[in-house]
Amino acid sequence: FTKEDEDSFAVFATYCGLALDHARLYEKIHKSEEKYKVALEVLSYHNTCTNDELITIKSLPLDSMPDETDPAFSPYTLSNDEKVLSSVKLIQSFSGVTKCEVDDIYRFTLTVRKNYRKVPYHNWTHGYSVAQTIYRFTRDCPGFTPMEKFSFFVSGLCHDLDHRGTNN
């Protein structure tokens, strides 16, 4: 190789290094933008219920709900509002555990419903169905304390919160 060949290769190597560095920097910026978009999307779903939603749901009769402990009960027969009412009723059934105000229980349940996405499977109906099933299985089980049963129920209700439905 001549001195001119070595100089040409050094310039070429410098430009290749700069191109690789720019590509790496571009990829880093692109990933950062994607994370930003996901963060904004997540924040847009993480809302609490409004006072109007609370007033609307509280105007519905809580005592007309079906028996959720009946083996023939299906959560698919309930509307989304009825699932909220049923959840409130079941939460209130944990005697001595829920020392919350009734409005707080309504707000919590409405907020959980609001933060489930409208995807085919991991949605509000699925969360309610899991919680109701856990309630049925643990209700008469002497091996768990009331607080553990309550924790299982809330865990079931919230277990797929904000699930995008893109994978299992």
UniProtKB/TrEMBL annotation:
Q: From the record, what ranges are coiled-coil?
A: none
Which keywords describe this protein according to UniProt?
A: Hydrolase, Metal-binding
PROSITE patterns linked to this entry: PDEASE_I_2
Residues that, per the record, bind Zn(2+) 2? 160
UniProt-listed InterPro entries: GAF-like_dom_sf, HD/PDEase_dom, PDEase, PDEase_catalytic_dom, PDEase_catalytic_dom_sf
- GO MF term list: 3',5'-cyclic-nucleotide phosphodiesterase activity; metal ion binding
Query: Which biological process annotations from GO are given for this protein?
Result: signal transduction
Q: Which Gene3D superfamilies match?
A: 3'5'-cyclic nucleotide phosphodiesterase, catalytic domain, 3.30.450.40
Q: Outline the extent of the PDEase domain.
A: 50-168
Annotated active site = 122 (proton donor)
Spell out the CDD domains in the cross-references: HDc
Q: For Zn(2+) 1, which residues are the binding ones?
A: 126, 159-160
- Tell me what this protein is called: PDEase domain-containing protein
